[in-house]
Specification:
Length: about 350
């Protein structure tokens, strides 16, 4: 376990009333990004690496009344919440966090509040990954730094087919840029209608056709029981050998072992991945050995501009809750029914 020393925000002679934990602050950005000193009678501990395992989490977080988490880096299921009797306020980055059992938190008397996020950041990263893997930018960069020149040949996007698995807000934004590149855009999801797709200039196709026709297939689904493992060996076998898979959604949507096998056998040209089954990705993971896998460490939302927004609003959430007037509450009866 690794964490920064506790920051004591007490006035001389005051008692600690609010022990606050900030989890998964990998870049040690939280304390400098907001005015934590405005919180009364508080002591803050920042955990800058993940605490792995529920037993370790329950032990490490037992002293804290307030916990601040960065989106879905650490899960808070009922089994963990039941082991944190001192916890009264959980603040999450974002106004949705599927890794927190909101109903169990409410039943345990824990208020869950959220913050705004920068919605454009994952959209930008998706296109960065698409461009990087199709134009082989990482290989070119490595070759140039190693003294080489013109190491590889990428593909152009004009006239190619972009397949979008999940045409929600983000998928629709991705489609808008693909139009500028002159790509043909097709999409499928379980609830997508032809009419909805046509509204944004996209053709709805059946699932198998999506995988068979796409030159680049980009995933934009929420992780749920019906989407977990949706992309498996059968779906990957339908793809062109020249095709690329891009996943900036959630790792478990794709069957990891099937994707590793497809990449190892060159069954598809490559994959660009920002999300994984286990995060952080283990140091010895097979993905790290594949030259046709472009990897980033779940940085979709992580840009410099994010930290003041998220942690600033986290401080606002805590201050409002301490005054008995919580804001941006995610697990009120009304929120859970909406």
């Amino acid at each position: 376990m690794c964490y920064t020393d506790a920051i004591n925000l007490l006035k001389p002679g005051a008692q600690v009333m609010n022990r606050i934990a900030i989890l998964d602050d990998y870049k040690n950005a939280a304390l400098s990004a907001a005015d934590w000193g405005s919180l009364p009678e508080s002591e803050i501990t920042v955990f800058n690496v993940p605490v792995v395992g529920e037993d370790a989490l329950a032990e490490a977080l037992a002293p804290f009344r307030i916990i601040v988490i960065m989106r879905e880096r650490t899960a808070f299921p009922k089994s963990l919440l039941d082991r944190l009797p001192r916890l009264e306020l959980l603040v999450t980055a974002g106004m949705r966090n599927l890794s927190v059992d909101m109903e169990a938190a409410r039943d345990n008397g824990v208020t869950v509040c959220g913050t705004q996020m920068m919605r454009h950041a994952p959209f930008e990263l998706t296109w960065a990954l698409i461009m990087a893997i199709t134009r082989k930018i990482p290989a070119e960069n490595a070759a140039m730094h190693d003294g080489g020149w013109h190491e590889s040949v990428g593909i152009g996007l004009k006239g190619k087919t972009l397949g979008i698995l999940g045409l929600g807000r983000l998928g629709t934004e991705i489609a808008g840029v693909a139009t500028l590149f002159g790509m043909e855009i097709i999409a499928w999801s379980q609830n997508l209608t032809a009419e909805r797709a046509a509204e944004v200039g996209v053709s709805r196709v059946e699932k198998d056709e999506l995988f068979a026709r796409s030159d680049v297939l980009s995933i934009h689904l929420l992780l749920s029981e019906r989407t977990r493992g949706m992309v498996g060996a059968r779906e990957l076998s339908l793809m062109k050998r020249s095709a690329y898979l891009v996943n900036t959604a959630r790792g478990p949507i794709v069957e990891e072992s099937a994707l590793i096998s497809a990449l190892q056998k060159k069954r598809i040209a490559g994959a660009a991945l920002d999300v994984f089954d286990v995060e952080p990705l283990p140091a010895e993971h097979p993905f790290r050995e594949l030259d046709n896998a472009l990897l980033t460490g779940h940085v979709g939302y992580t840009i410099e501009e994010l930290y003041p927004l998220v942690y600033g609003q986290a401080v606002e959430d805590i201050d409002a809750w301490l005054q008995g007037e919580p804001v941006r509450v995610l697990n009120s009866p009304t929120s859970l029914c909406s």
